[in-house]
User: Which sequence fits this backbone?
């Protein structure tokens, strides 16, 4: 990308993104970020980490795309409505997991006890499910907050 | 404990620098350094879960968020200094430090809590098996209602931020 003159680029790096070096590095590393977030979530009962840290890392990978490629490209992938819907889905998931064990008398506690031994990832019981729900809620909620901040920022710039 | 004291001194110096800088992005970077110090401090205090959350939120998220949402208009802060304000802040800080010193003198020694209930969790943890992260076992099994409450607060905060942002966008001419 050619470097534009100072007068041409009206909102600084909002819609256009950053230079080609940053774009290339971002294209290479965003997948690794996301994979690391998934790893922290799915191994949250074995290693330090958990749903919150993994969700923030996943949201950061989206924010990385937003900063490097500009908000126009990033908003095509994920709109505000989709992000809010995903956050609501995560909240519902957490609450549903909580009341899923109601028939076994396990209201908001581990209803999958006694099913260990299948594999190391599944040994967490409902801890893994809670981590996944929290991951969806936190990542989508933070993405929605980023999107609304950036939208209000570009509105402020256009005045 | 020497490492903790060094980290605390670095954090205090960094916070003062972040307060005094006029550029918000530079302040955010310094705050990231302070957060990194507190994350390393959590590692020294054997709390790797907290260290990871601190690292992710304060080091990366704050800098990225400020970088992504900063406009040219609000990038520089120039606030006047009021003498009365400084006096009030200094007296409050002095009272806080004095009260904190008085309280810390009477608190139990670090690492030896008064409550024995954590020992029960740690011993029952062996019975669950397969869950090697004790913090996850406590947060998402014994105390999962607390975690669900925290997630409800987070969800409400997200919805509130969205509502405020949308309203402020609409009210503009």
Assistant:
């Amino acid at each position: 990308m050619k470097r534009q003159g100072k007068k041409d680029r009206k909102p600084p790096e909002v819609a256009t993104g950053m230079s080609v070096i940053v774009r290339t590095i971002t294209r290479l590393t965003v997948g690794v970020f996301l994979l690391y977030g998934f790893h922290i979530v799915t191994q949250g009962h074995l290693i330090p980490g958990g749903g919150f840290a993994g969700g923030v890392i996943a949201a950061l990978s989206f924010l990385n795309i937003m900063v490097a490629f500009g908000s126009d490209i990033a908003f095509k992938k994920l709109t505000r409505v989709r992000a809010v819907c995903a956050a609501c889905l995560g909240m519902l998931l957490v609450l549903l997991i909580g009341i899923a064990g109601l028939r076994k008398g396990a209201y908001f506690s581990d209803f999958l006890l006694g099913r260990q031994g299948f594999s190391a990832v599944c040994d967490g019981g409902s801890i893994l499910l809670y981590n996944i729900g929290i991951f969806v809620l936190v990542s989508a909620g933070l993405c929605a907050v980023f999107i609304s901040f950036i939208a209000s920022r570009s509105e402020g710039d256009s005045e | 404990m020497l490492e903790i004291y060094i980290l605390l001194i670095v954090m205090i110096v960094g916070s003062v620098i972040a307060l005094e800088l006029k550029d918000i992005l530079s302040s955010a970077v310094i705050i990231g350094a302070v957060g990194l110090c507190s994350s390393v401090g959590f590692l020294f205090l054997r709390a790797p879960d907290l260290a990871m959350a601190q690292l992710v939120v304060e080091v990366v998220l704050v800098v990225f968020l400020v970088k992504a949402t900063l406009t040219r208009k609000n990038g520089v802060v120039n606030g006047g200094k009021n003498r009365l304000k400084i006096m009030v802040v200094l007296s409050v800080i002095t009272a806080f430090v004095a009260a904190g010193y008085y309280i810390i003198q009477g608190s139990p020694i670090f690492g030896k809590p008064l409550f024995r209930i954590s020992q029960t969790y740690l011993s029952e943890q062996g019975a669950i098996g397969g869950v090697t992260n004790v913090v996850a076992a406590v947060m998402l099994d014994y105390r999962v209602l607390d975690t669900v409450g925290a997630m409800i607060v987070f969800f409400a905060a997200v919805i509130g931020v969205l509502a405020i942002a949308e309203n402020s966008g609409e009210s503009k001419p």
